Amino acid sequence: MKRYILLLALVAISLPAVLAQKFAMVDMDYILKNIPAYETATEQLNIISKKWQSEVEASMQEVQTMYKNYQTELVFLSEEMKVKREEEIIAREKAAQELKRTYFGPEGELFKKRQSLMKPIQDEIYNVIQEISRDKDYSLIFDKGSSMNVIFTSPKLDISDEVLTKLGYSK
After folding, report:
1. pLDDT range class, residue 38, cuts 50, 70, 90
2. Rounded CA gap, 35 and 118, in Å?
3. Which long-range contacts (CB under 8 A, 24 or more apart) does 39-46 make?
4. How far is CA 64 from CA 90, 102, 114, in A?
5. How far apart are CA 127 and CA 144, in angstroms?
6. 118-150 pLDDT, tens per residue?
7. Taking the CB of residue 2, how many other CB atoms lie within 10 A of it?
8. Between helices 109-136 and 36-73, what is the axis angle to 10°?
9. What integer is the mean pLDDT of 19-33?
10. What is the dihedral angle through the alpha carbons of 138, 140, 145, 148, rounded to the nearest 10 degrees?
11. Tell me, what's the pLDDT at 52?
12. 3-state secondary structure string, the chain?
């Protein structure tokens, strides 16, 4: 009997601490879509990406053309010429792959450009969310757009519009 009373007392003591925690959510996709600088940065990235992609495709097309020409002229070439042409094709293919890696690799130019354009916007949003969290004493703020485990959230918990207002993009 004493154990049950002790357990009930512990639950009663810890219950207010659990209930006192405040939660909120944001929709980062919604916030980002309402920031003109983000849209501009996205457009710039798309333009740059398409330009670089066309350069890579042109380089790869050149390799394919060289290979087709080699296949066509193969019967007329001496062994030395065959080896020389094969080496040229391989060198061009490596150069094309290196160009692709330079632009689109994990530490490539597109990644660096995305970081330089997007990071300031994301940092500003993060700082505002931190400020709201401190002001309203939220224990947890999560992004409903990226959380796959959230089935339902109350619209009352969504502070996305408040974040936009503090950023200066009120609707």
Report:
1. very high
2. 11
3. 41/117, 41/118, 41/121, 44/113, 44/117, 45/110, 45/113, 45/114, 45/117
4. 11, 20, 31
5. 18
6. 999 999 999 998 898 888 888 888 887 775 566
7. 6
8. 160
9. 82
10. -150
11. 96
12. CHHHHHHHHHHHHHHHHHHCCCEEEECHHHHHHCCHHHHHHHHHHHHHHHHHHHHHHHHHHHHHHHHHHHHHHHHHCCHHHHHHHHHHHHHHHHHHHHHHHHHHCCCCHHHHHHHHHHHHHHHHHHHHHHHHHHHHCCCEEEECCCCCCCCCCCHHHECHHHHHHHHCCCC
Residues 85-124 have pLDDT tens digits of 999 999 999 999 999 999 999 999 999 999 999 999 999 9
| Amino acid found at 99 | L
At 9, list the tokens.
């007392």
Which residues are CB-neighbours of 44 under 8 A, at least 6 positions away?
113, 117
Can you give the pTM of this predicted structure? 0.70
And the tokens for 28? 């980062």
Contact residues for 124 (Cβ-Cβ < 8 A; gap 6+): 167
- Determine how many CB atoms are found less than 10 A away from the CB of residue 77: 14
